[in-house]
Request: fold
Amino acid sequence: MRRLLVAVAAAALALTACGSGETGGGDGKVTITFWDNNGGPARTPIYEELIKRFESANPNIHVEYVGIPSASVQQKYDTAIAGGETPDVGGVTTSYLAHLVGQEALAPVDDRINSGPLKDKLLPSLVETVRQTGPDGKLYLVPSSANMDVIWYRTDWFKDAGIEPPKTWDEFITAATKLTDTAANKYGYTIRGGAGSVFQLITEAYAYSGVDNFYEGGQSTLNDSANAELVDKIAKLYKKATPEADVNNSFTQMIAQFTGGSIGMMHHNLGSYSDVTKALGDKVAAIPLPVGPSGKRTVVPNPTDGFAVFKNSENQDAAWKFAEFLTSSESNSYWNEKVGQIPANTDVRSAAWIDKAAHVKMALGVMEDPATILVPAPVYLPQYSSITKTDSEPQYQKVLLGELSAQQFLDDMAKKLTEAQKEWEERK
Amino acid sequence: MTETLTRPPVNTPPPPRKPTKRRRRAVAEEPGKRWLIHVPLVVYLLFTLIPFYWMIVFAVRPTGSTQLVPWPITLEHFDTVWNDIGFGIFFYNSVMIGLGVLVFVTILSTMGGYALARFKFRGQRVFLLALLCTQFIPGAMMLIPLFVIFKGAGLLNSLTGLVIAEVAFQLPLALILMSGFVRNISYELEEAAMVDGCSRMRAFFAVTLPQLKPALVAVGSFAFIGAWNQFLFALMFASRQDKFTLPVGLSYALGEFNTDFGALAAGGVVAAVPVVLVFAVVQRFLVQGLSAGAVKG
Reply:
């Protein structure tokens, strides 16, 4: 036993020397660390290019890039915060922003934005959603791009059937039924019934009902009868205009079916642009979620992507400089053109590529239209993801299978969301 | 009780084993009925091999292709994972960590296991119980304490740190296994060697160690594979791209909005090859090693 202890201790001591020792050298050069929250072959090269440009413009700052796999990024941040080893700049989305702010890990950026070139250059609707996510109304990240839920559809199928892309939900239902030909293994629509289903369903429900606030007097509006009507309509499409396997679909299966050519319409977001165009070329296009009988366009925004400066950073000025560079019109344009999302910098609107990227132009139009009403989901609630995912996804599958009524399903979820909101208000 | 005992024996049915035996032999001998064995085996084989086949198909066929038999074969996905994602470095890191863990776990568990089996010391039972209890703690719970300790020791972002964490995690079970193996080797042989003038150390190396060979292979290869597949520690303790390991690299192919199936499959092939090789080489020893405790020798 003693020998064992000695051996371990000796090994540890002998090798400590190989530990870290990376802080900048004596030549006045600053090293900052940047964590990409969705690292991988699709996005890493874009950042590498931007870092190259930044370093040549700022020769005294060196940026160390670390790509974090998107599925583990929140855990990685939590561990880093607990251990006091946070990066200088990090990619952060509003889906876990409140969590990071709650641990006092981030530095507010309002003043920095207002005193620099980004002042009044950021899409107001995005800034507003970011602001609402923070507990104290401050901006803890500078938004860089937005995503939006859209319906991807097969232009060739619609042309062959002689129908127009739907503008209302009723047209949508008719089109889905009309495009279905089960004998030829063609389905008008695909339902996301597995992981991530409920968030999509919520965006559909609010788009249909036109209810313009997630909470009314502290009560969740999710179980509004118009919302239930939509859920019911979607559930009725199951197996009639959609494949039977849909009840377990996560986005991977959904996209695989759509790109495989057996689906006419798919509800996902702009993020699947590269996948669908790679497979289907110009036979695919996007429309916003249809509107309901109210005629109002309500949008439940997707998490907004952006960059945050960490409080523990020893080089906050250099860190901000980099974040500012990434959201400058030139970098922001380059980045969003490559990933096909909505640029946050309003100067990018006039960039030539926007005219060619029909889906971005369409989404930008929706986001900038003064008639569009944003209904942000309460992602700041600590229980939000357990309620909408763990608790509700299996329930939604029951709705699809006809074992639970849409109204009952939404009543349960609304009750939990109301309680969580109340708890949150009391703790504030 | 007595009543049951004195009661005349009831008509017991004939022992059921014999007919079954006879029938089974008949199945094996009759060539026409071979399929009764072979069909289930083939089904089972397909069941295990089809996922592998899919992985290889996805890895070598071009993106967007839906062929079942991939032809022509492309290596573009291997190029992506090796050069764009950086599997070259990840592979090196995983090999180094795997070997480090293998060496330390094997040496430490042999020494510790021997001590646990052969020596009596105060608190032995408590110690064994503590070892067992460590198995109940999930790795995720040790993450933050370990992180803080490693930060203080300057072990973050180093392969050494990952080796130490993984050794610490694997050692308890390896110790328990090893002490079981040692207990099954008769102490009389060692005693005889010592009577003949060997020191305890020499008796251990000359008599006991050679008999432990299957155990060493079993513990060592499991240590290697455990370290090879380790994801959580590698992701959390390394914040530099050049210190990540293969499992972390694999998760790069799973983006938030898109999944690169080709790269994922090619990465899977790269990550699986060493494991398959290890098992191919050591499986003979492995069966011996794992069943060593089953029959007392």
The two ends of chain B are 39 Å apart (CA to CA).
